[in-house]
Amino acid sequence: MSPLLFYKCLADDTRLKILLLLVSHTSLCVCDLIDALSLSQPKISRHLAYLRKCNIVQAERRGKWMYYALNNALPEWAFSVLKTTEFANQEYVKEANSRLKNAMSTNCQDSSS
């Protein structure tokens, strides 16, 4: 992965917040990201598709839900940038983390019935 492509993929508020949430939460459902970022499903899905195209995230279907995680093949330098950014900028994702924490207990699992 070229540094230019990597940083272009991060150069959007929504995509950066998605990635920083994935650093600290390992794997998240699309519905979790919708709640955390207070955005529509099409907008979240469009950004996730872009991140998949950049090979920064990977998707896994669990039942009817798609879960996203950082790509296991992400170069160490790229993972280090994300981890350092997440650690040093807790305030940047504080609101999203708070909404995510409130929503996670009732999210995708309850909607599958």
UniProtKB/TrEMBL annotation:
Keywords carried by this UniProt record: Arsenical resistance, DNA-binding, Transcription, Transcription regulation
Signal sequence coordinates: none
Family matches, as Pfam families: HTH_5
InterPro entries named in the record: ArsR-like_HTH (IPR011991), ArsR_HTH (IPR018334), HTH_ArsR_DNA-bd_dom (IPR001845), HTH_MetalResp_TranReg (IPR051081), WH-like_DNA-bd_sf (IPR036388), WH_DNA-bd_sf (IPR036390)
Annotated coiled-coil segments of the chain: none
HTH arsR-type domain location: 1-89
Protein name: Metalloregulator ArsR/SmtB family transcription factor
